[in-house]
């Protein structure tokens, strides 16, 4: 069995060797650029990890892993345009470097490139692989749409929020694992269970991100602590707080939505503490972790074949950044 860092290294080595057409240069250069910007390569590594877990050949799962990474980076190009973001992984974003129209078109052709990579999978498995990939990709786009709509709504419910993060973040984790399982000829039941594990782990991961955004160590957290509070982002914490506020405290929170000063993060965090919102969010996160590990328990393979996936899940859920 390979460990996750070995699988990440396989992805990292394969990416520079992807052959893109040379012409038109301004269509393909942005793809090479974003694909080689780095990142943890976690999602494609999950494809390989699942294939390895079910005794498949890692090499045979590599095209699907690269398809997942290509799709993921395609969404990042378009997300950065939507967010008007100047930087991605500390470097200039594609739309800032090549212009918005170019970035849209390069992103579009990345979806084609992802399909070309998937076409290298064993033809007997291709229909199931494509169905899984397409359901995953569609879910991510649906999640992004809901996330944008939530910005202008003041009636978002907690179940709606959970469904949005399921689509935007978690289906890609589940989909990556399921692709690896399919390529390793796992049973339909095992492929469904590994998807269930990944989806629930992905939801737990995003809930943990919501918590870390407020309570993370500034020295270890990879972005500004309190960023969600500053931007009035609807997170599990904020939605849970709004459900519980007294009328007087609702007035305090409403004032903070308009607060542009440095006191905003402290004031909203004080409300979270007062209503024990961190504890509520942690409890919710743990409930999805339990669901994930219950699904994993039902996969009837030797325990040692699950060790790397369990180790990765524990590492992800004990992170501080």
Commentary on this structure:
It is a single chain. With 321 residues, the chain is an all-alpha fold. The protein has 15 helices and two strands. The protein has a two-stranded antiparallel ribbon. Strand 1 and strand 2 form a beta hairpin. Helix 2 crosses helix 6. It is globular. The chain starts with a helix and ends with a helix.
Spatial gap, N to C terminus: 27 Å
Shape type? globular
> Which segments are poorly predicted (pLDDT under 50) over 5 or more consecutive residues?
none
In DSSP terms (H or I, runs of 4 or more residues), the helix count works out at: 15
Structural class: mainly alpha
Mean pLDDT: 95
Strand order of the largest sheet: 1-2
